[in-house]
Amino acid sequence: MPEGTPVPDRATGTLPGGRQAPPGAGAAAPTALEVLRRLETGPRGLTRAEAGQRLARLGENTLPSRRDASWPLLFARSLRDPFTAVLLCLGLVSAAVASWGTALVTLVLVTVSCALRASGEHRADRSTAGLRDLVASTATVLRRADEDTAPAAREVPVAELVPGDVVRLGAGDLVPADVRLLRATGFSVHQAALTGESAPVAKTALDAPGDAEGSVSDRPELCFQGSSVASGSATAVVVATGSRARFAAALARAGGHREASAFDRSVHGIAWILIRFMLLTPPLVLMANAALRGRGLETLPFAVAVAVGLTPEMLPVIVTGCLARGAALLARAHGVIVKRLPALHDLGAVDVLCVDKTGTLTQDRPVVERALDTEGRDDPEVLRWAAANAWWTLQLADLPAPDVLDEALLAAAGPDALQTHDGIAALPFDPARRLSTAVLTTPGSLGTHTLVVKGAVEEVLDRCVPDDGERERLRAAAAGHAAAGLRVLAVATAERPGRGGGPLPADVRGLTPRGLITLRDALAPTAAEALGVLADRGVAVKVLTGDHPGTALRACADLGIPVPDDSVLTAARIDAVPDAELAALVHRTTVFARCTPEHKARVTAALRDGGHTVGFLGDGVNDLPALRAADVGIAPRAATDVAREGADVVLADKDLTAITHAIGAGRHAGGNIVSYLRVTLSSNLGNVLAMLCAGLLLPFLPMLPVQVLAQNLCFDAAQLAFAFDRPHPSVLRRPADLRPRALLGFITRFGLLNAVADLATFGVLALSLYGPGTGDDEAVFHSGWFTENLLTQALVMLILRLGARTARGHRPGPVAWAAGALAAIGLALPPSPLGPVLGLTALPVQYYLLLGAVLVLYAAGLLAARMRYERRRAPGGTRV
């Protein structure tokens, strides 16, 4: 390959001039020498002057920062809310017809709502700003003072790394940039953040001049920012930094357009229903009054007041108040940060939760399941040999720490199992040979040593004394355990004459098999309990993992997740299914194995297309497409920066218990919002229908505009209680989402019932008007209907809210107190000194007696209609 040719993909990042290599340039994997030559560096690293020049030219090795929106910008964005836009339009119409009171109240409602929403989202942005803590802060770099000086290892800030720097990596280090290995010993990395694969991946510095096959993340000589070193040590050259690293490329993909969430879709649907009603109402009022009563434009303020009466003016305030209060409680009590307030409602509506296996259902470490001899019987001696190998390999091979498998063996065996033998020498685990060797003393046998070998089943058995029957039996047993989702190690020993020096790879032969060690992933301590809570709340859990299907099935079985035989899909099967069929297939599937980022996103999108509200929990770069495809993207605080940026909700820990708390808070908030809409829209629709009928039947306006405004103000003030209500526990058991069609059916049914109660009140008023001392017929009608409206609205608040049937002995909640206050105002305002100011007057006694009978019948009708409605919709959950 000619010198200066750009290196394909991101294997070497930028060229010395700062230009990015063109994607797909070439197909061969460059050798280490070619990489060093193209980066104009060498094994001794860069000089300080060269590093400074490249830093000035290419920029710091930092992720592209996300600039959080300012409070004024968030306030302006809040004005795009459909209901806010409706209120603004009504306010402008009110101002145009000189209804200044209505215009002023509308403006105040819009301002308060937008301020609350902007403050909540600004506070969430500030909270997540301190969560950028995954990328390493320093790195060990070989730097030279000048060309003739020997290189010296020094710690430098990761931000100062440049392409061409030579870095040293050891167990536990975070890979600070995209690098190409130059030397490696027993080196493996965790790259689950990039690929979703939970097991460490072996990496080598071997040159592979042939075609670079498969994914770039599978290339053994490359390591990428966002991964961490699991074992061994290595020297590598930095090939890409900052915005040119794969990590940053994933961040760029996360910044694309995101589909509307469940909450956004529902709110827009409801808004358009109301807009159609409001556009239709004023013309009907004007035309009807002009045709039947000869009244013209003087009824325009009344028509606008009727349209305002249909609008749930407090909805933006109630929604923002409920969500902001729930988000604040979550942050304070459980460390859960809600970055986008509507996401809290979407959490309450979630009926499918997609999770990874590692770190969510299981911990990122294995535990010993069983130790089996060659006949398949439990044998603790096999575990003691394996633990002795792990201990003395750690002590004699200068390893910084045991790997996760050795840790599991040592924890299972305990300290007593290590006192039988003394170690002589050891060969650590080699990713190429896939086994480790320890030479131990043999008690009672002077001059004889015991060679203890453990590692991959095939590698160990191939080095055993030929016994085809035994080896085949052990291979079959190991395959069975692996199919059941267990990791399997083989253990073998051999007696050797004592001699000086350590063991050589050639010594590992002629072994006698001792048996097998099976290991499983350690279950997350709170996973089983949290899964039970999610099941009780109607949330189906789907496992999307990059691991083998057997491993995922094992974790599901251990946690009690039912997985039918036809409920497992692999990536190959997903690829073979068209989108039209996938939506039906994913509905009945529980485990999706060997998933790439594209598979996860496609499965998530298919679940949404199937009518589900989907939450996705992810923490790696590979989870970004699915986080954005879900209705709610959830990431833990320890996730990669780009995953946290793409998530709607950030957890303190990757713990399903925190998600149950968040879903509970979302359902509380969603239940209050649903209650508000049920109460307000059904009551408002009934009042509007009654006003239209009364406007046609009466020779005067059924209610003065100022009285409509006063009534709305009283009702709106009482409705603020919904932001502080605590719904009945039954609300937690089912997803509570807003469905425009279902809501339209609900408000139509109960709105008609409310209109019937209003028309019955007209009859009561007709009787009352002929009584003694009634005074002005028009003022009495206005006063009577004003009182009846507030009393019926108080009844609706108590009866139609979700979970209204509370347990005996509970003290009244905020909604009950607000309803009581509303009823008291309805009774006290007309005869009060403020009554004449509003055109109200005292009512005759017989009116209250007849009104009481109407209210009793209305309450009975509401209760009967509600019970029938809930019986019909019980299987579908709490969905309005």
Termini Cα gap: 66 Å
- Domain count: the total is 3
User: CATH topology of the largest domain, what is it called?
Assistant: Calcium-transporting ATPase, transmembrane domain
Classify the secondary structure makeup into a structural class. alpha/beta
CATH architectural grouping of the largest domain = Up-down Bundle
What does the model show?
The chain is an alpha/beta fold. It has three domains: 32-60 and 136-173 and 178-240, Calcium-transporting ATPase, cytoplasmic transduction domain A, CATH 2.70.150; 72-124 and 259-345 and 661-876, Calcium-transporting ATPase, transmembrane domain (Up-down Bundle); 365-522, Calcium-transporting ATPase, cytoplasmic domain N, CATH 3.40.1110. It contains 28 helices and 22 strands. The strands form three sheets. Strands 1, 2, 3, 4, 5, 6, 7 and 8 form an eight-stranded mixed β-sheet that branches. Strands 9-22-21-20-10-17-19-18 form an eight-stranded mixed β-sheet, sandwiched between helices. A six-stranded antiparallel β-sheet has the order 11-16-15-14-13-12, with helices on both faces. A hairpin with a 6-residue loop joins strand 13 and strand 14 (448-455).
